Amino acid sequence: MVLLLATLLLLAMAAHSFSNVVSYDGVIQIGAYNMSLPTDKLFQLFKDKTGSSSPDLIEYTSLNKHFKYKRFAEEEKRRHIFADNVRYINKHNAKYASGESTFYLGINQFTDMSYQEFAENYANLQNQDTWKGNASIFLPPENYRAPSSVDWRQKGYVTQVKDQGPCGSGWAFSATGAIEGQFAWQTGTLVSLSEQQLIDCSSRSYGNYGCRGGSPGGTFQYVRDQEGIESEPDYPYRTMPFPCSFTKSKVRATVREYFIVKPDENSLETATASEGPISASIKVNRKFQLYKGGVFSDCSGETSWNHAVLVVGYTSIPNVWLVKNSYGSDWGEEGYITMWKGWNVCDIASKAVFPRV
Length: 357
Hints:
Layout: H1 2-18, E1 22-24, E2 27-30, E3 33-34, H2 39-49, E4 58-60, E5 67-69, H3 72-97, E6 103-105, H4 115-122, E7 136-137, E8 150-151, H5 170-187, H6 195-201, H7 216-226, E9 229-230, E10 251-253, E11 257-261, H8 265-275, E12 278-282, H9 286-289, E13 291-296, E14 307-316, E15 319-324, E16 336-340, E17 352-356
Parallel strand pairs: 7-11, 13-16
Antiparallel strand pairs: 1-2, 2-3, 4-5, 6-13, 8-14, 9-10, 11-17, 12-14, 12-17, 14-15, 15-16
Helix pairs in contact: 5-6, 5-7
């Protein structure tokens, strides 16, 4: 118990040292959002600054990308959901301000969505075993000792943060991220690869259903069978499925084989250090939906793996995973989330997989 309390204190101190928030009387200011403002003012600021993430709810003006809800009744519904999420954020952040939590929440593009709506559209990974197909079990190099910290972004193996938009395609972004890292390692060139090809062309036989979810492991099998994947510029992302238009002559990367990481954090650490960025399936919840910064430590309430991310590294002080998400740079820590390492938070180590190109 003493060790656990000491660890929590260390993580809390680390989380506060990383944050860019200002605490006052138990309330937290996060960027442009002063959470002590009335909800209606916050909602107007949200509409002016962020916009809703669902195209079914909004109409865009010409150039400035600001939006309005299509109907007054819809706006009222969204305002109530927004207000409920703001209460939830403030309640949690009061714990962060007092040192009871290691991470804080904030207003983002999902704040006018209920968790059920968010999960249906942004956290709908197909619940399939990663090892279906021709995957092998990853065996670490003989006598290998993982370093105390790794960050593949510093090596130039990680592309910019991408935004999946209103499409449940996190599985595709996780898969391309792992292939991009491997390709950069092998060739010395970092190329952004096409998630849209995976959405359009990778079928149900690989466990993939376009914007309705998919499977990173099945995606590696698809790229292997198809003998390649195009680049993002050649096959750009469009946030919805279209007829497959894959052109084999434009292939930029291939997959020779792919591997399942044994379901424990030591194996994930070894794989991350020795192989590069790793695709990981995780369980996410309402706190993940509204995460803004700090060391994330709570995926309670969710029982199934419903999202896929990219593990790009880890550190030992504090003991955390460095994780790239696909919700754009306005979510989390400029598109990333720092997750507590050592307790398999969100089951991050339970379904990890990576390719070789």
